[in-house]
Records
---
Amino acid sequence: MPLCVYLCYTHGCEQKVERWMLTPDEGRAARIECPRCGEPLRCAWTGSQAPTPNMKDAIASEFRPRS
């Protein structure tokens, strides 16, 4: 589930809105109005969540006995 960041480039407003979207394409295609001035926001960034690493596996592989 990607986090999308939308920015308003209207002079004096410069509002930032973050939304979780189902897909990156849905995030880029979304038409969101600025909550402050009402102008359309532009999608500035679409990222995705990285899975949390399993620290048990990471630590076990790091401290293997040397042969």
---
Amino acid sequence: MELVRQAKGWQKVAVFSREYVFGDLRADALVAVDNAVTKKRTVFFVEVDNGTNPFVDKHKPLAEKMALSLDPPWWATPLFPRVLVATSRPDKVRSICEGSPVRYCVATLEEVRKDVYKCLAASSEKK
């Protein structure tokens, strides 16, 4: 588990829910990392794209629905979480995500293994 191994002393993986399901969405994982210094929580989804199926912007409909929701789930406040996509075809995935209201962080598996938190800081589109 790279998230735990690479965490700094002030970071704690507080939530890791594999195969997270919410309505029509099934994400490979939902993660929340707490920062003990800033007292802030970073929440994001994880998608692993193995290149055998077409990658689709499956988070877009849910993000648009959450933008209008009067009672969003705990992880959707104040913004829809970023989505970390680990893939062997980052350029293809970035092109599919272009123009999405969702903040995607697209990285190769090697980049994630090297520094998952750096991958989260980068996104395919600055929002």
---
Amino acid sequence: MPGLHFLSKKKTSSTPTPLLLAAILYVSALHSPSPEFAALAPGYFVATCCAISELAVPIQAARRPEQQDSNSETTKLNAEQKAFQNVLGLILAGLISEAFIETTGLWITMGYRLTLDHCPVHIDERSHEWRGLFSGLQVHIF
């Protein structure tokens, strides 16, 4: 996971949410010196947008195979971890797309909603860096 200026600790995740994974791949492709990898950016952008749209309108009837498998690493993430990673994915996608995607304001609003819904009341050293994510959302707006 890329280190971001508003997160104090560099953390890695072996089980990123689809949104975080797509956003990281999109940002990486846009900044890649390799023309072959850079050419994948439009596809990663579409994957990022699809993952964001699933947050707004979850697909209930046609669940993805990894969601059906109870042994999957993705299903082992709790709601707070998923929300944290999704907010981070929204920040990455929003920061890289804000100049040409008019819906980034909606993406950031979703980030605020996820933060309000899933940020624990008592934050300690074991908690995710919710303050950092909140600062990242604020930086993105201003």
---
Amino acid sequence: MSYPINFGPITVPSIPIDDVKIEVELDLSLACSPNLVNRLSAIQSNGITVPISKIVAFSALHFHGAVYDFHKIGLNRSAIKLAWEDIASWRPRAVIRSRGKTSKLTFVQMGNSRVQALVTEIVGVGVGLVAASHVFQIPFRLWYPTPKLGPTDFCAPYLGGEVHLECRGRFQRGGWENAKQQVYKKFLGPNSYHSQLGTLFSLNTTPNSRKPDLVLIDPPGEVLVLDRFHAYRAILKHYAPFFGAQGKFEFANRLQIVSEFDNYDFEKYLSEGDESLYRMRGWGSGRTSFTLGSVKFWGTAWKADSLPFNVFYGDNPDAKQKSGYAFFGLAKSIILCLAKGELENLVDAQITPWQQRDEVAMSSAYYVFEDGTAIAWAPSIEALLELP
């Protein structure tokens, strides 16, 4: 006889938002590309200061293509939730180092070596993508996994070509030199790309380690010039899953189709837009919206019984509300850019993630992410409708 297992509204603690300093060393034994020498040297001198929450958010790309949106919070947030549930038991937190009073990222080392390997891989991806975004100055939304993770883990469009990223993580620098050799082997293999970055991150149990947390390995060579529209195609592929998660499969599929146009048709799309996308830009009936400042977001509202309240309010002991109503949307201006082919505006856009919440009445909360998606929450449908 079998028995159903119901976990109920079980949640993990909120993701820490404390800033931590990742100290960096360079391994340029493969000869650094000249155009990156100054930038890499500056990163080595200053390190990378980043919120723990950003590392977790970036680590979610590890689960790209392997996420189902059970909670109806969007594929990206579902991936972040999945990453955090794997990482949380290892208790990442900011601890002040005794010398220099620097805030460092530390973990508790658990006893399961197989799970430890997974956690180091996930965190290694998050820190690696943060570092690569600094090195190449490429925003997170343009990075995506390479097919079957080979010959490298991730890639992104860059100066008319693309760059590749190989990530590694180790606990307390265990197997450190072997991990470096794995990166070298990838870079020097028969399918090697010309512009690559290797990252190797150490998850430490103490803030007082005397060795840097992160090694950046930069191989030789200039960028391999590929499709000149590579960055624009990556933008379309990034936003397509958002529309699929909203149930707008026709719009999502059309974005995917346009991203695979040959260069002649793609150039026409960039200059004239796409008639099918423009026709569907209004989303039809059943859509809703809200406005933050001067920005309107279009999307979908739903009863968020399974959405943990502490996603928005942290571990507030006075927070009693555990469910409510939520809205997930995308800036209207971005939707119009996709329809009109005005992708240059999206590639160059710098969107700063921010949040706003009612700390007193706990009646609403907003989160805006760096790709222009946003989520709003209210305790009731009436309160949600009263939002701007």
